[in-house]
Amino acid sequence: MENVLRPLIVLGGSVVLTLLVGWLADQLLQRVDVRRPETPLWGMLRRCRLPLQTVLLTALLRGSYEQTQWRIIRDHEVGIGRALTVLLIGASAWLVVRIASAAVEATYARYAALTTDAARVRRVRTQVTLIMRIVTAVVGVVAVAAMLLTFPDFRAIGTSMLASAGIIGIVAGVAAQSTLSNMFAGFQIAFGDMVRIGDTVVVDGEWGVVEEVTLTFLTVRTWDERRLTMPVSYFTSKPFENWSRGGAQITGTVFFHLDHAAPVALMRERLRQLVEQSPVWDGRGWSLVVTDTTPSTMVVRAVVTAKDADDLWTLRCSVREELIAWLYARHPYALPRVATMPAPDRHDGGGTAARRDDG
Predict the structure, then answer these.
(1) In CATH, what is the architecture of 152-245?
(2) What pTM does this model have?
């Protein structure tokens, strides 16, 4: 009877205690979250309940599994203890990452709620994303190293490898030169404020929005929903356009090739009406001037402004479409024309001269 009750008490007691502690921690965080609604930290910490219970259960089993006195456990005591230790290290790393993520996200959410500058919010968001990736990578490496140290064979191998660590480091540095340069470029982008998540950029002639920034690559979502994945070192070594730098507002142009008789003054008045009626015009400015002429046409440039690149694209297309339709309906003579003349008659002098030249 004791052989049955003892394992049930050890295993069942560990499970019950784990569930009880997890429930109490969740209730405590829930009450604190209700009393402190100004910060989302306590609500985010509730997501740590599962890794906390895993750590607690693993620790309880690691300390009491020998008390079950099962024969199978006695026969494999070392292996089971080592497996529980490895599991405890992994669960602890999981808990640390969850806690760090909750703290960082809560800080960012509070900062974003109190800051009206969208550019600063995007900059902090980029930095927070990279910081979390660094923390996750460091915790993962430390956890894996701690797991390996639980095996005596790996400790011996690690001790023997320390003597050649310098040579290995040099070889690894040369082999991973590209990866290391990308990592340093990632730090430079994150804390040098060169490009941020949500910025509108033009890279290799492609217009898009920065969607993701990591330590090694950067993803740009183009207007047609394609994703351009580029190494971050590209943005530190080559020029690119950042339309969100210094503010998201932007100025755009629309060009028209028209006849010299086009009513420029009336077009200017019509453009004023169009921008004032447009919901995407930000009210900063507009203009319409003649910028160039050719023997058959003149070039008219309309300038409009918008709060961001998306609204500017919509406004430019609307101005182009509305002005062309207005000219076609009200002033068709203003549209460019191709001068033509009838072909010479075969029986006139020109035809005779042509026939003589052919002869």
Answers:
(1) Roll (2.30)
(2) 0.47
